[in-house]
Write a structure and sequence with these properties.
10-stranded parallel beta sheet
Length: 466
């Protein structure tokens, strides 16, 4: 019987190790089967014993390409609610003839050919290293593992944490296959189609989709609750650096954006359109955003609640993973707090933009603290913009669709400090300083005062003289 008790002790230790790695939460962790489908084809590997010893999974302990190693670690962590720590890369090791040999080139950054897929209940840590998209990649940097191309439906996930330690960087490709959103055709110096072109080496190639889509987003989370994204630098994103769809109860903080509306490729400047920093799309609620810095090619932060027709999730012709709602109020964006924003838009658009249209409502919004850091000679359209009278966005929203805004402490060098281009009701705007000598109005209302109801404006002043 002695052998039986030895075996029982080993099983107990392994079980306790996996339990130790569970996140601190009172909520049960669920891991839908479809959430792991994209990585099911990876070669099977035994869970490294170091994971039990160190309480995290390390992609350096796995074999395969960089993305195979990372996703294998994420898959194993998903099986027990664990942590994946991506430190500086080490060459993959393979056993051949009893000898351990390095199978990949020496470099300490990770070069990935497809998205890192994060299951529910997993904490992904990027620790003083860079994860960079390869020139072969036409995919996200990070995506919640509940969605993929033509997935049809997206099941909710909980408890995803993405955390940077020290100098943690996510970086776009040197030569992206595609950039821009779903309305922008791809172009290169050799292939220039009609329309507002955005760079992509896939331009003109047979069999490749010729516009941008959701794969161009940096970090894409869909239907995720109880989440956090913290302490990352995102550089040269191919479209929106972070996009959240129907996400709730989360935090996005201490994020630096480093995107300039394009980059030099083979010595020539190429335009990357729609290079927003952080976008909250339809259905996002109860989210804290704070300590956002840097510059983006398009709006630094954008809350955009724009309806669309219902369709299967994951189709390749949209910048959103999910289709529209049967019940339009399901797409409302509300209960959002934004604090301490310091940055500018390199493409000259907006620092913070709020846009809801065609019956989707936006309400209970706090924006406290925007400092426009635009360099000399550069100007954004607005530090803060609310709504849009452009008919392409549905025109001015009816009174009552955009309400409960509290905007304060805005330091602007933009063409408009606060630009109201839609409707606004039951809101306050205070402590606005305009440093742009070309516009003597701290608050511009281009939609017309008839679209303002019960809006109190105080302490708005000009600090620049012509």
């Amino acid at each position: 019987m002695r052998w039986f008790y030895c075996l029982l002790s080993v099983v107990f230790v392994l079980f306790q190790g996996c339990d130790y790695m569970k996140p601190h939460t009172d909520h049960p962790i669920t891991y839908p089967a479809q959430g792991v489908a994209p990585v099911e084809e990876l070669p099977a590997v035994d869970t490294p014993q170091r994971a039990v010893q160190n309480s995290f999974f390390d992609p350096n302990d796995y074999s395969g390409s960089d993305i195979e190693r990372i996703n294998a670690a994420l898959k194993d962590a998903g099986s027990c609610g664990g942590t994946v720590r991506i430190g500086k890369r080490k060459p993959a090791i393979q056993i051949s003839g009893g000898n351990a040999i390095a199978t990949l080139e020496e470099r300490d950054i990770w070069l990935i050919d497809s998205a890192m897929l994060v299951p529910g209940g997993v904490h992904l840590i990027i620790d003083n290293t860079t994860v960079k998209l390869s020139n072969l990649c036409r995919d996200n940097m990070i995506r919640s593992a509940n969605c993929w191309e033509n997935c049809g439906t997206v099941e909710p996930l909980k408890n995803i944490r993405i955390t940077g330690i020290g100098n943690a960087v996510l970086e776009g490709a040197d030569i992206p296959r595609a950039t821009g959103d779903g309305a922008k055709p791809l172009g290169t110096p050799e292939f220039v189609p009609n329309g507002p072109v955005s760079f992509g080496s896939d331009a003109g190639k047979a069999g490749e989709y010729q516009k941008g889509d959701w794969r161009n987003i940096g970090i894409l989370l869909a239907k995720v609750s109880d989440f956090s994204i913290e302490n990352l630098t995102i550089r040269d994103s191919h479209c929106w650096a972070i996009s959240l769809e129907y996400c709730t109860n989360g935090k996005v903080r201490d994020i630096q954006f480093d995107s300039s509306n394009g980059k030099k490729i083979n010595g020539t400047w190429q335009l990357f359109r729609n290079q927003d920093g952080l976008d909250l799309r339809r259905g996002c609620r109860d989210i804290l955003i704070e300590n956002i810095t840097g510059h983006s090619g398009d709006d630094l932060i954008a809350l955009t609640a724009i309806p669309s027709k219902p369709r299967p999730a994951g189709t390749g012709n949209s910048t959103m993973m999910l289709g529209g709602d049967e019940k339009i109020s399901d797409g409302d964006v509300c209960n959002i707090t934004i604090r301490n924003v310091r940055g500018y838009c390199a493409g000259g658009h907006h620092i913070v933009r709020f846009l809801n249209t065609l019956g989707v409502k936006m309400y209970n919004i706090i924006l406290d603290g925007v400092i426009d850091t635009s360099p000399s000679g550069h100007s954004n359209r607005a530090a803060v913009k609310i709504g849009d009278k452009n008919r392409n966005w549905g025109g001015v929203t009816p009174l009552g669709d955009t309400y409960g805004f509290h905007i304060s402490n805005i330091h602007s060098r933009s063409k408009s400090a606060v630009l109201i281009a839609g409707s606004l009701q039951d809101s306050t705007i205070s402590n606005v300083i305009n440093f742009n000598a070309e516009n003597q109005n701290p608050i511009d209302c281009t939609s017309g005062k008839q679209y303002l109801r019960n809006v109190k404006i105080s302490n708005a002043l000009n600090a620049a003289v012509k």
